[in-house]
Specification:
Radius of gyration of chain B: 18 Å
Helix content of chain B: 25-40%
Shape of chain A: globular
Shape of chain B: globular
Number of strands of chain A: 0
CATH superfamily of the largest domain in chain B: P-loop containing nucleotide triphosphate hydrolases
Helix content of chain A: over 70%
Strand content of chain B: 15-25%
Number of helices of chain A: 22
Largest sheet of chain A: none
Strand order of the largest sheet of chain B: 6-7-8-3-9-10
Distance between the termini of chain B: 39 Å
Number of strands of chain B: 10
Largest interface: A-B, 22 and 31 residues
Order of helices and strands of chain A: HHHHHHHHHHHHHHHHHHHHHH
Largest sheet of chain B: 6 strands, mixed
Structural class of chain A: mainly alpha
Oligomer: heterodimer
Order of helices and strands of chain B: EEEHEEEHHHEHEHEEH
Chain lengths: 533, 239
């Protein structure tokens, strides 16, 4: 297949457009940093400090998240208990949950006037730590990433064949030895991959650092870009830092790619129950301790969002015009962004899977990489480039809505690509010839073959990108203004001015919106199967 | 009549060269060792791959410029013949209209064929609720509703047990005769060929070495490749 198939054209055009879009942003950044001397950053003590801090906090967050996730996932793997399913569902949400909602929950517990502080106050003691600064950043990152890592480790543990458990029990391997010889190898296979992924997430994290860090001591590059532009109006520095961030992210991704074997997680695999475990009093205590710890860590902040959200400010927020405007903007942005992300991913994957079918793996990888380019050029970097580009064009406020939509769509794209790639490839591998011989093409093909078979996956991806977009703060942070806010930005402003009651209401609304989307879309498209015409 | 004239194709290191004719109304078994090019022969005819040179004609008309679904043939694959998310009825109906919009006449035709292959009671089921033999019968029904003069079988029954396999082949033969359909079938089993085929093609190393009547298929065949193949296969089957 030397020529490009007609089906592949839209995806190819899309991938190239995304690339050009990013290039335009980068070109603008280059234009605004005339010296282009990245050594400036290294010779400036402040910028050197924030670079070091970015790495430092990411490293600590990653180590904590991964090291905690190993015993927790192991304990979860060994034990069955009431509510385990629900807990795992909750684990799946922490990474997509609007960041500020979780942070509100964490503040409500660990904050200066949170639950713990009240408790200490009762004994007339001050809170022995402050949530602001490195503490808070680590707390938030561990909150988001430990459950995520747990789920991934659990999947690899569940992929251990039943026979290996049987052999282990025949050999009399007890808790520790079984872990060493049977379970640890399964975890180890995923370790590099998960560590790399979490490190990237923490390194480019924006909202957590913005809400909990931010002082000169606890600032990351992501945040410094934003501060340079929004507070200091120092466009040259902002541009230079953005370029610096691109360099670091690119190097990091290459480094991570080199050191992680490319074995895909098989999420379809229904794991066997670990039915041959050796049990003792100590093992029980050990497992129960870890499971209790994670429950106590993850559940209360979310409960607090619900409890705190129902308060006396509820009515005044609900009659506030700003709130409704923010809600409307958030809803529109998330709807457009998620539809664009899923449609783009669909077309890009049509292109790449066609190449994969014919053995052109490299071309397929490349076209998918263009779609996921946001991973090396974080949202705030793209936004900065576009912000500067549009400043020249003049009327910024007029276009900011569309820019936020576009950046959010691009940020959701890697996640959507990842969840749709394998199912769509499977569909093609199974049905490509059959469709060709029956003449099932274009719209018929989409409706009867792709949509009918992958509806659940597609809708899930849609919900995922909707929730990611509705909680995003990094694109709106630069483009937001008095007249243009979204719920996360509004929430951030309320938190910044210590209007905790009002913030609680907005956090609750965001949480409800995120959950409702999943429930609503699932119900809306519930299968109505008509068999005979 | 199906005619391959100096048809050449290559995939990676393997070269293929076919030059052969198949009579209308015959039931031809395609035999040969694994990787010899049996499936390639069918894929070229079906249009999934395009030859580098030469021509393929059906009823004196070149089909090379036609897309697979416009060629006068239906095909049954080894596996994945059914869309697992669609019911048996929908799977068959896709052979009549790619958007499943059937008129009264087409619905009637579907019903008649479904009765002939005895799947009329299974139409509401999803493929996962069907046995291996039932699945291939549903797929067979779709091939026949398509009403094409040629049927290609790429080992669709190889996963079935021997008794069921022979029964399926007998059914194919019966339907093919009734509807005057030419059948080309790839098979691993010489007994299958002997049981139903009128002719056979022996493919070895990318070439069709023999296109003859089935009665000449025996171990004393003058082609040494073929006689070696038959000896090896029969000793295999005796194990």
């Amino acid at each position: 297949m030397k020529t490009i198939n007609r089906v592949q054209l839209p995806g190819l055009v899309l991938a190239i457009s995304i690339f050009i879009f990013v290039l335009m942003a980068i070109a603008t950044l280059l234009k605004y940093s005339p010296s282009l001397d990245l050594t400036v950053i290294w010779s400036d003590t402040y910028y050197r400090h924030i670079t070091q801090f970015s790495f430092y906090q990411a490293l600590l967050s990653t180590l904590l998240s991964v090291l905690l996730a190993i015993p927790i996932s192991h304990a979860l793997f060994r034990r069955e208990f009431f509510g385990k399913k629900l807990l795992l569902k909750l684990f799946a949400t922490t990474l997509v949950l609007p960041v500020l909602v979780a942070i509100f929950g964490l503040l409500a517990i660990y904050g200066n006037s949170g639950l713990l502080a009240t408790f200490f106050d009762y004994f007339e003691q001050p809170l022995p730590f402050s949530i602001y600064g490195l503490n808070g950043i680590l707390l938030a990152h561990v909150f988001f990433n430990t459950p995520f890592a747990c789920r991934l480790f659990l999947q690899s543990l569940q992929a251990i064949p039943e026979q290996q458990h049987q052999i282990a029990s025949q050999l009399g391997l007890k808790h520790l030895n079984k872990f060493r010889f049977v379970e640890w190898p399964a975890i180890k296979g995923q370790l590099a991959h998960i560590t790399g992924l979490i490190f990237m997430l923490c390194f480019t994290s924006f909202a957590s650092v913005m809400a909990l860090g931010g002082g000169p001591k606890a600032t990351t590059i992501e945040l410094a870009i934003y501060q340079a532009i929004k507070f200091d109006f120092d466009l040259a520095t902002g541009a230079l830092l953005a370029l610096w961030q691109i360099c670091l992210c690119t190097l990091l991704s290459i480094f991570i790619q080199k050191f992680t074997s490319h074995n895909e997680l098989n999420t379809q695999q229904q794991g066997d129950k670990n039915s041959f475990k050796y049990d003792s009093f100590f093992s029980k205590c050990w497992d129960i301790a870890w499971i209790s710890a994670i429950i106590i860590f993850v559940v209360p902040p979310l409960l607090m969002v619900i409890i705190a959200g129902i308060n006396s400010e509820l009515l005044s927020i609900l009659t506030d015009n700003t709130f409704w405007k923010a809600l409307k903007n958030s809803f529109l942005i998330a709807s457009f962004a998620s539809i664009i992300a899923v449609t783009s991913a669909f077309f890009i994957l049509l292109t790449s899977r066609q190449w994969r079918l014919h053995g052109f793996q490299h071309r397929a990888d490349k076209v998918e990489m263009f779609g996921a380019i946001i991973l090396v050029t974080p949202g705030i970097v793209i936004s900065t480039g576009l912000f500067l580009l549009l400043r020249e064009a003049g009327n910024l406020s007029h276009l900011s809505f569309y820019i936020v939509v576009a950046v959010n769509a691009m940020m959701a794209l890697p996640f959507v690509l990842k969840s749709l790639a394998q199912p769509m490839l499977n569909n093609a591998q199974k049905y490509e010839k059959l469709c060709a011989s029956l003449g099932v093409f274009s719209l018929n093909r989409f409706y009867w073959i792709e949509w009918k078979a992958l509806r659940v996956t597609i809708l899930h991806a849609l919900c995922l990108s909707f929730v990611l977009s509705i909680g995003d703060l990094s694109a709106i942070a630069l483009f937001g203004s008095q007249s243009f806010t979204t719920l996360p930005l509004y929430l951030f402003q309320l938190l910044g001015s210590y209007q905790m009651q009002a913030a609680a209401v907005v956090a609750l609304v965001l949480l409800i919106l995120s959950v409702l989307v999943f429930v609503f879309i699932e119900k809306l498209f519930q299968e109505k199967r008509v068999i005979h015409d | 009549m199906i005619k391959f004239s100096q048809t050449r194709y290559h995939y990676k290191q393997q070269k293929f060269h076919f030059d052969l004719q198949v009579k209308e109304g015959s039931l031809v078994a395609i035999l040969g060792p694994s990787g010899a090019g049996k499936s390639t022969l069918l894929n070229l005819l079906a249009g999934f791959i395009v030859p580098e040179s030469g021509d393929i004609k059906i009823a004196n008309r070149s089909v090379l410029s036609l897309a697979p679904h416009l060629r006068p043939l239906a095909m049954l694959f080894q596996e994945n013949n059914l869309f697992t998310h669609l019911s048996a009825y929908q799977n068959i109906a896709l052979g009549l209209h790619p958007g499943l919009k059937l008129n009264q006449q087409q619905k009637q035709r579907l019903q008649t064929i479904a009765e002939q292959v005895e799947v009329d009671g299974l139409l509401a089921r999803l493929p996962e609720q069907l046995s291996g033999g039932q699945k291939q019968r549903v797929a067979l029904a779709r091939c026949f509703v398509q009403d094409k003069p040629i049927l290609l079988l790429d080992e669709p029954f190889s996963a079935l047990d021997p008794v069921l396999r022979v029964a399926m082949l007998a059914r194919v033969k019966h339907l093919a005769e009734k509807q005057q359909v030419t059948v080309l079938m790839v098979t691993h089993h010489i007994s299958d060929a002997l049981a139903v085929a009128s002719d056979f093609i022996f493919v070895d190393q990318g070439k069709a070495l023999a296109v003859e009547q089935i009665s000449t298929l025996n171990k004393q065949h003058t082609n040494t490749h073929l006689s070696d193949f038959l000896n090896a296969e029969s000793s295999n089957n005796n194990e």
